[in-house]
Amino acid sequence: MERIFQEINRSPYFSIWISLLVALIALGAYGVLLSLFVGMDVFKFHHALPWTIKISTYIFFVGSCTGISMITSLGHIFGVKRFEIIGKRAALLALITVNVGMVSILLHLGHPERSYYFFLTPNIRSAIWGMSQFYTVAIPFIIVELWFLMRSDMARIANNSTGYKQLIYSLAVLGQRDTSHESVERDHKWAMRAAVIALVFELAAFSTLGTIFGHTQAKAYWYGTYFPLFFLLTAAYSGIAWLIGIIIVTYHFQKKDMANELKKLIFEMANIFAVLLSVSLLFILYKVSVGLFDPNQSGAIMLMLKGNFSLSFWAFEITLGTLIPIALILYSLKRQWLWGLVAASVMALIGLFLTRYDFLITGQAFPYFRYSSLDTVLPTLVESLVVGGIFGAFFLVYTLAVKFLPIDEKTH
Amino acid sequence: MENNKGISRRQFLEGLAVSTSGIALGLPSLSEGAVTPIYAKLVDTQKCIGCKRCMSACKRWNKLKIDRAEDLTDRETELTGNTWVVVNLKSDAKNREDLTYIHWACQHCEKPACAGACPVSAIKKYPEGPVVIDEKKCIGCKYCIMSCPYNVPQFDSKNRITRKCTMCYDRVLRRIAPACVAACPVGALDFGPKKEILKKAKDRTEQINGYLLGEHEAGGTNMLTILKTKPEDLGLIVAAKEIINKDLDKARISFSGFSGAATAVAMLYLYSIFGKGE
After folding, report:
1. Secondary structure class of B101 (helix, strand, coil)
2. Within 10 Å of residue A162's Cβ, how many Cβ atoms?
3. How many Å lie between the alpha carbon of A326 and the closest alpha carbon of chain B?
4. Is the pLDDT of residue B278 over 80?
5. Max alpha carbon distance in chain A (Å)?
6. pLDDT in tens, A370-402
7. What is the end-to-end Cα distance of chain A in Å, rounded?
8. pTM over 0.95
9. Is residue A275 predicted with pLDDT exceeding 90?
């Protein structure tokens, strides 16, 4: 706490940032309380569209977690040394994104306290059941991976501190205060093992999340094998976007110099980012082409091309979310311009967030709305406040984590 | 009606008690063969006068809240978490002056997609035909609403669970017809063993040169509706007739997802070998 107040005194930007995040969370909490005391109608903008922005926010965050883990597996699992340096920050981001996503989905459920029925009376044919079980395994292993990655640094802090700080860091390392080279090697081995299990189950969970939609024969736009694959692709580039954006912005606000090998790694990730964005454009083109000729899907496709979602689709999903980031990345790579990459990452993430929402609503709209009209496509104000609170929680947890946890990149 | 050979004295006495009441109500009893009878509900839209007594009876029997002004108008009414049956006036798209009252509720599919989707097995297809949501188990994920081809289950925001018509399963267990069927003053609703109902429905459909909804749609349903014309002409959602084998289909799609994940891992591995970083 003392460190936070010191930071507030030192930097007005930090206090504004924290205040903004706390305000967002407070508004979100207000929205949740309203839903508890007034009823979940405060989240409903149409009775035929029960899955709304909290679901798309969940998909956005857990997809980001999977994407981050995919990219950093190159370091921890596949032995590409240059990727190891971002391992700790990536593991932290993966943990925060998946937990924030879980908060979003828990707020969507009518009775989250009945979740024990997942274990008492499971339905193994249900994709939601499968997804929940995979995440139940993945999340503890992400925690284990992060712990092993940070253990030696936290042990070093414990060894060099006194009083409460020493106590807290000693507890954090569960008394394992050995900082020898052998113990660090051992940590890396266990981190790798945990990372392997976490990655396998995260991939299984997120592809199963795609099959939740793929299984619904009643919703022709979602039905089939397309979305499980599209989800994985977009998860990969969202992971890169988060890593690039967060690393550059964090270094800027911490006023730290970025080592050359970290910069090189960021530009390498940006290369992969551009390729994945281009592939996603091909996927979208495929889906639109096939969907237009399928009478069961054309309604949803037309909603995006010419209907209520046309602005979101053309301006945000295609232009802001894909075309401009590709151009910016290519330009930034040529000019070795880091802030260009930040801008590309932010735009891609905004585009992806709206892509998730558009996909969710247009998929539900048909066949119901063939005989009715879709008056509005925006979530309710209360639900928007809750989602704002979720984003606020994400950034607050990350901001505080970088203050207290030793996750800085150790470069040579 | 067959009797099993060699039934015990207890079975005989139970059967005698149930069959007496069952026969009085016109429904087959458990003692008639060892097989659980499968029931179906029949809606004859050509007899319906739109009085909406069925809607009121449903609300009374199931103790459902009145969540809007329940006036007897022909304004379009939607199913909600507290309105499990609706009667709407529909016009034929080919002849707008041809109006029909359509009694609409859960179709109680033979292979309910909602039951397959529920992650906590809160939805069950009973042998007698009804598809029922266990309201004490429902976690309110709304996946059943997504899975239903007819958009039937609805979320009750106050109770925070998904609810729908149960075909008055508690009455069916006691061999009594659902509340809506019992309330209909003109015999537009019928209830009985599915074989008999289906035969009645086919005969009647042929008689009016109409369309029988529910014989094949969604893989067959335990609610059959006799329409004068095709359901899409009346603005009704039409479920696919052929339900692709649900479990195999789900396995196929899940496999594609896992294959995608495996491909991603393979590409990461290849990148680790061939990726130069420059």
Report:
1. strand
2. 8
3. 18
4. no
5. 70
6. 545 566 778 899 999 999 999 999 999 999 999
7. 32
8. no
9. yes
